[in-house]
């Protein structure tokens, strides 16, 4: 149960970062911040996926 809760919360946080990335990429002035949000979100998603099998 704890693993599932951890994964769901982590994926929710990653999804929020992806939404912020799309919002940031809508303007040339905020595109750098949008890219950073996208990278952070993808990093969280990858780490969560790799940790699901080990926890």
Question: How would you describe this structure to a colleague?
Answer:
The chain has helices at about 1-25, 30-50. The protein has about 55 residues and is mainly α. It starts with a helix and ends with a helix. About 80% of the residues lie in helices and about 0% in strands. Helix 1 packs antiparallel against helix 2. The chain is elongated. It has one domain.
Brief summary of the model shown:
It contains 2 helices and no strands. The chain is mostly helical and 55 residues long.
Using only C-alpha atoms, the radius of gyration works out to 13 Å
List unreliable stretches of 5+ residues: none
Secondary-structure-derived class: mainly alpha
- For the secondary structure, the number of strands is 0
Helix content: over 70%
Number of domains: 1
Distance between the termini: 11 Å
Give the overall shape, derived from the CA principal axes.
elongated
Question: What are the main properties of this structure?
Answer:
55 residues; mainly alpha; single chain
Topology, please?
Elements: H1 2-24, H2 31-52
Helix pairs in contact: 1-2
């Amino acid at each position: 149960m704890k693993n599932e809760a951890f994964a769901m919360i982590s994926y929710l946080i990653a999804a929020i970062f992806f939404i912020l990335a799309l919002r940031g990429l809508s303007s040339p002035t905020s595109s750098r911040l949008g890219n950073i949000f996208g990278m952070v979100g993808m990093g969280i998603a990858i780490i969560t996926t790799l940790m699901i099998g080990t926890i």
